[in-house]
Write a structure and sequence with these properties.
- The chain has one domain.
- Helix content is about 70%, strand content about 5%.
- The N and C termini lie far apart (about 65 Å).
- Keywords: Signal.
Length: about 160
């Protein structure tokens, strides 16, 4: 098979693969995808700041879940998705173990549960550690990942101490 024929087949099949990826909703790196994720996370976290700290833990967890949904179909954002999912899961497990059932659910940007007052220092420590790990992941990838994840990492890092 000639080199030209091989190249033509590669282009045709490569285009078909890209088309299939696009049909499935898969997107690569883009400024608009990054802006959507940043906007979703920032809006969620900012809305959570209206809540008392005990409710903020669950609110933050839900803000991360919403952001993960925004980038879930963009395979290029997989590392950022994993990093933010880890934060969400750490908070979710903590909330389940430390829910203050006497306070019920309240609405602060999301419908959220409170954790006990006594558990708040541990919540802050878990969140700070999770944030540090996520930021390290988002800032430690390839050149393209660092470029597109930097705005997300900035928002995540800025929220590090906001459970107090």
């Amino acid at each position: 098979m000639s080199a030209l024929r091989k190249f033509t087949l590669a282009v045709v099949f490569g285009s078909a693969a890209l088309s299939a990826q696009a049909e499935q909703g898969d997107m690569g790196f883009s400024d608009s995808q990054t802006e959507r994720a940043v906007s979703t996370l920032k809006t969620g976290l900012d809305g959570c700041m209206e809540a008392p700290p005990q409710f903020r833990v669950d609110c933050f967890q839900q803000a991360y879940v919403g952001t993960v949904r925004v980038i879930a179909n963009a395979s290029a954002y997989w590392e950022a998705e994993v990093a933010m999912t880890r934060i969400s899961r750490a908070l979710y497990g903590f909330i389940r173990a430390n829910t203050d059932k006497s306070l019920g659910k309240e609405r602060y940007h999301f419908r959220v549960r409170a954790v006990t007052e006594a558990a708040m220092p541990e919540a802050q420590a878990i969140y700070a550690q999770s944030v540090d790990q996520a930021v390290a992941i988002m800032r430690g990838g390839s050149t393209a990942e660092v470029k597109y994840f930097a705005p997300l990492a900035e928002v995540v890092e800025a929220s590090r101490d906001q459970l107090r």
